[in-house]
Amino acid sequence: MSKGLNKAHIIVVGNEKGGSGKSTTAVHIAVSLMKRDFKIAIVDLDARQKSLARYLENRLNYADQHDLQLSIPDVYVLGRSMEGDVDNMIYEDTKNFTELVDELHKESDFILIDCPGNDSNLARLAHSVADTLITPINDSFIDLDLLANVNPDTYKVEKLSLYSEMVWDARKHRAMTDRGTIDWIVMRNRTSALDAKNKRRVHEALKELQKRVSFRYVQGLGERVVYRELFPKGLTLVDFRDTEEKVTMSHIAARQEIRRLMSDLQLPGWEEEKLEPLESKIA
Ligand SMILES: Nc1ncnc2c1ncn2[C@@H]1O[C@H](COP(=O)(O)OP(=O)(O)OP(=O)(O)O)[C@@H](O)[C@H]1O
Ligand SMILES: [Mg+2]
After folding, report:
1. What is the pTM of this model?
2. Residue 28 lies in a domain
3. How many domains would you assign to the chain?
4. Mutational test site, ligand 1, from 118, 190, 227, 251, max ligand atoms within 8 Å of CB
5. pLDDT tens digits, one per residue of 31-56
6. Is 39 part of a structural domain of the chain?
């Protein structure tokens, strides 16, 4: 292990809601950590879409084609068992997952697991070994509904929903197996400068919910076109120093969000950065 942490720290990015920004968040965290010389292994549990693996494949190709020195983590895609029998399926998933994670523990500072946008046995296993669980949610009550039911008049939280129950089970499992705890972080994604009323209501509901469900609610990322544009090149906002890409004010604001997110995560060994300004590269 490059940084001498005692044991790999497992970061799981999960939310049963599809398209909430899990893979986008995961790639930015991975590259941020690699920039600090942490050794990262990535596990993509979405063997159908493989978005994160594809992102990093694009990164490799782009670095080759443009002769760039980009850090590229090892990626392992783990598909779910195809066993027809449920008991056999659970057995096989558990065996494959445990073997892979045990192996990665030996050589990594961080293992970063990107979950698919639905409930699966592999995703449950991942949640139950998480040291840090990150749940990006889009800024709407539809996304919030996966965490809790909210009163339509008062916007008060009435009842926990399926995903929160699942995390609750994972926490119990974790406490029983190694007395570990899961630091659950809910981050907002794609917050927009428009629609201030909705933004405030979601904010209030999350503030109340964090007390009931024990997660840390952090600000997360704004709605920015740049997050969508980076995929074909496999780049992240953290890379602009190492590329010929021109930097815009929007890039700088987005980078700032990523830096704040990394700081909010409170990962072991992470220290606040002191960066040179990027203004010299502004387009
Ligand atoms: N902050 C953002 N601003 C603008 N677009 C974003 C932002 N975050 C994610 N996106 C876009 O939203 C879409 C879904 O993002 P992403 O693939 O990261 O979500 P996901 O949760 O991993 O999805 P899935 O559940 O299908 O795995 C992508 O097109 C991505 O580029
Ligand atoms: Mg994804």
Report:
1. 0.93
2. yes
3. 1
4. 227
5. 999 999 999 999 999 999 999 999 99
6. yes
